[in-house]
Structure formats: C-alpha cells, structure tokens
Amino acid sequence: MAEQFFERPILNSPYEYPALHWELDEEGQPTNQLVESRRPSKFLTPIPKPKKRRKAQDDVQQALPLFDTEGISDESQAYDLSLFINSVREKVNAWRNLSDPADWKVTPETARLLQHWRQHKFQSLRPFFCQVEAAETAIWLAEVAPKGKSFLAHIASVNEEANPELVRTALKLATGAGKTTVMAMLIAWQTVNAVRHPQSNRFTRGFLLVTPGITIRDRLRVLQPNDPDSYYASRELLPSDMLPDLQKAKIVITNYHAFKRRERMQIASGTRKLVQGRGPELNTLETEGQMLQRVMPELMGMKNVLVINDEAHHCYREKPDTDDVSSLKGDDKNEAKQNNEAARLWISGIEVVKRKLGVQRVYDLSATPFFLRGSGYAEGTLFPWTVSDFSLMDAIECGIVKLPRVPVADNVPGGEMPKFRNLWEHIGKKMPKKGRGKAKALDPLSLPAELQTALNALYGHYEKTFEMWQAQQIDVPPVFIVVCNNTSTSKLVYDYISGFVQTDDDGRETPHEGRLALFRNTDTFGNAGQTHTQSSST
After folding, report:
1. Distances (CA, A) of 119 to 16, 122, 124, 239
2. Measured CA distances, 307 to 299, 488, 501 (Å)
3. 491, 490, 510, 514: which is closest to 502 by C-alpha?
4. Rounded to an integer, what is the distance from CA 499 to the centroid of its chain?
5. Are strands 499-503 and 21-24 parallel, antiparallel or unpaired?
6. Which sign, positive or negative, has the C-alpha torsion 15, 17, 19, 24?
C-alpha cells in the first residue's frame, strides 16, 4: 500500500483549526489512518521505516528510542507536560468558541484585536491559525486565567525552581511557522492596552527583544513601528485607528552578547599592576546600570518591561548542584561549556533588567524550547513553562512547511541499526573541525561512505521529482538543500556535489565532475558551465 502520509501530508488549512491528523503508532511510524481530531501535543517524530530490513533488524527497530535523551523518552515527564499543554489548549479553544465578546473577559481593546485577527479580510498576508493561537494563549493566561489559578500556579512553580527571579512563558512554534508575526501581535496587544489604560500594571509599552545573533536581530527590525517594512501596517495586524498607539511603544532589539559588561577604560597590564599596588584589584568594568544605559537607553526610566526571547532555548539557568559538563569529553564538553556561558550571560542580563527596571513577563519563542546538554537537566527536556505547542508535524499537516525527507534505502553494510536515522553519530569523527580553511587539504571524494550514500539516496528522489516537473513543463526546478554543521564540511560537500579541481604536490591540476549530475557546475574537463549549485555560510 502506498505511504499515504508521505504522498498526501497536507490535511488542514493553515488558517483554520486543524481538524484532522495522521495517526502514528507507538514507535512514531505513520499508520496511514486519518483521525478526525486535532493532533494532541506529544513529543514524537515520525521516521519512515527503512526499506532494507531483516528479522533481526525488525526487533532492534522496535526497541529504538525516538530520541536519545532521557528527558523526552521518560514516559512520566512526557505525559505530565503534554497533559498541561493539552489542557491549556482545550481551555483556549473553548474560550475562542464563545460567540459573545462580552464573555471573553478581556479588555475592549483586546477583544477588538482578537476579532480583527480572526475575522478581518486581509488584503496581504493573513495570520496563520498557529500564530493567532499562540497570541491567544498568551492573552488567555494574562487576562482570563487569573479567574481560575491552577494554570498560573503551575507556571509560577516551575519558574520558581528554574528561573527564580523571572516569570517565563514559552510558546513553541515550528520553524517556518512565523514567530516574528507572533511577536508583533504580542507587542500590539500590550501597547494598545498600555496606551489606553495607562494606570493598569498588566500592560506595558516597553519591550526588550533578545536574540542569539546579529542576523536574527536585523531580521526583527520589522517589529519597529517606524520601519519601512513594519509588520503592523504592512500585514494589517491592527485596526487602522489603533496604529497611532504603536508609535508610543519603546522597542529595543539586541543580541544577548550586549549584556556582557565592558571595560570602562583600557589599561595595560603593567600599568594596572602599578596603579593597583598592594591594594584591592581594580574594578574597571561597567556597572549594571551603565550596561543597561548602553544597551537600552530608550527603556531607561520605564517600569515593568516585557521581554521577548527569540530562539529562547539558548537562555536558561543551569540546574543548581549539578555538573553535567565534567562527564563529557572533547568537542561535546567544549560545546556544553560554550552553551552554558552563553545561556548564563543571556539570563543574567534579563535578571539585571528585572532588578533595575522591572520585568513584567518573559515570553520565550522557539521551535525547540528544550534544555541543552550540560545544563544540568536531561538533554532535550522541554522547558516546563511551555504553554502552547504547534509542532513540525502540525505545520506539515497544515501546509505551512515542506515535508522533510530522510534516506530510507540504507545499504551501508556491517550493521543491524539503520545508520541514516542518526547519521552524524556515525560520521562525526570522520568530518573536519570548524573553519573553512581546514577543508583545503581534504579530499571531497573521501567523504564517509554513509554520507555519500545518504546524498545519493536523497538525490535519487530529487531526480525523479525533477523529471516529473520537466514533463509538466515547470520552468523553475525543485530545490535541494544540504545543511552542514560548519563551513569546512559544507566546502567538502559542495565540491563533492558540484565538482572541483584537485591540485597535487607537483602543481598538476585534475578536474573532477560533481557526483550528482544535475547539480554539476563544471564539465568533464573542469570548465565552468551553468551554476546549478551554490554554497552559503549563513
């Protein structure tokens, strides 16, 4: 029987409540059975069964965990967190279906925004259901849930344990589901209410958006009301009469590195020792207040700033009285140390904002709000303050993102376990370290056999799709994307796919064709032709 799940993955409209989902069995495999309800929040990922199977391998496959993480595979934890998220979802859905806005128990301004997002005839991009639901969940918890405090008590309890100085709420949306739009909706909701209810301490017009890097920070400029491409006007996220209120918002977008306190003066080490003498060590770092003045001068003097963390899984406080890092080795240990240092700087910066200015609430947005390795929590443990979940499976079934594929024709000899499922575990030690220069002396034709076979398996599917598109006279070809862990690996894979010229010790050059014919950039003699394949380091 045809694998209907992979042939017809899209079941729902991206703009409506998802009413159907594909059933998965206990191993996370599609059963090809449609279920007439929304997919419940679970932390499972469907993987196509490998085509090459033996009886012994069948037994191993049945026992193969979907995640090599204690946090997700632990049944009690998965049940408890799923139960909480699904309970919130049910409450929000019942509240959403109330026909009379008077029953919503929100401010008139919030009611207008909700009606606008749900019913407005958008001329440009209409918000996805998942984007509206994420904003609705935040609104329900802030304006409605206080009437019944069990949900808020849970959020307060888990924050007291993991983030004792902050109140964090995580909104989980699959990559590609549009977190930036959700941020704009949260800012609009808070600002309009703060402007029209200036005496209320439930709302604010001061916002700090923290990102993990400069690229993301620049992408979020559309959240500034005065930006030429501002989402509020271009995407019609507010009724026109509310747009002037957004001009009163104070929004600072920064990356977490800015929280690192800088030297106020540069003193040579010899001079420092001379000046210090036998006295206490000189303190030339910024104070916390000076750091805030540098990073967010627009917010100085405001109270109860609202913080939004983008890619929030990089922000956490390590679990007290634990030391996971010491048990790791090599690159894993170094990576864990770097992750913890970054996370510590990020959350410490927000805690400074809380002490000096006041933080109303922190909204965490991420497709993967899980603790990282070395945090003291089991790697992959979901942030327990997560309140909504729109997973990759949901996004696929609503047609928001494409269906990812993994190679299933595993013909690498010598093992019972399908290697493509966790490919990096089998090839990581054979691949180059960071830095594009480290790939210069390496041979693209010496890529691990497992990686070559995986590329060829996926290319085989691409080739069939390409031929179908050609037969239908579709001018634009399908796109084949390979994501690598660093620039040196990407250089090797790029050369393997597109072709390259190899120079020996005597300076003689030998051209090599790309191993994937449709992606070759050179001919048999090494002459450049049409550019089919490009490499990017972003």
Report:
1. 11, 9, 14, 12
2. 12, 36, 51
3. 510
4. 33
5. unpaired
6. positive
**What does the block give as tokens for 24?**
């998965």
Among residues 78, 58, 59, 60, the alpha carbon closest in space to that of 69 is found at 78
Residue found by looking up tokens 């609503």 in the block: 398
Phi and psi torsions of 386, nearest 5°: -70, 130
Q: What angle do CA 261, 264, 266 make, to 5 degrees?
A: 115
Single-letter code of the amino acid located at 337: K
- CA–CA gap between residue 280 and residue 56 (Å, rounded): 69
177 contacts 390 by C-beta, under 8 angstroms = yes
Of 188, 206, 298, 199, nearest to 243 (Cα)? 188
Query: Which candidate, 226, 203, 227, 198, places its Cα nearest to that of 306?
Result: 203
Q: What is the dihedral of CA 509, 513, 519, 523, to 10 degrees?
A: 80
Say how far apart CA 229 and CA 207 lie, in whole Å: 19
Give the residue among 393, 394, 391, 382 at the shortest CA–CA distance from 80. 382
For residues 112 and 104, the answer to whether their CB atoms sit within 8 Å is no
| Nearest residue to 372 (alpha-carbon basis) of 48, 71, 53 | 71
Tell which residue, 180, 162, 163, has the closest CA to residue 171. Answer: 180
What average pLDDT values come out for the chain (538 residues) when binned by 10 residues?
A: 73 95 83 91 54 44 33 42 90 95 95 96 93 97 82 91 93 94 97 95 95 86 93 94 96 95 71 61 79 94 93 91 82 87 95 95 94 87 93 92 62 48 70 57 79 84 87 84 81 88 81 87 70 70
Q: What is the DSSP string of 44-84?
A: ----PPPSS--HHHHHHHHH--S-S-HHHH-HHHHHHHHHH
Token pair belonging to 125:
């991009």
Question: Helix axis angle, 75-96 relative to 150-162, nearest 10°?
Answer: 140
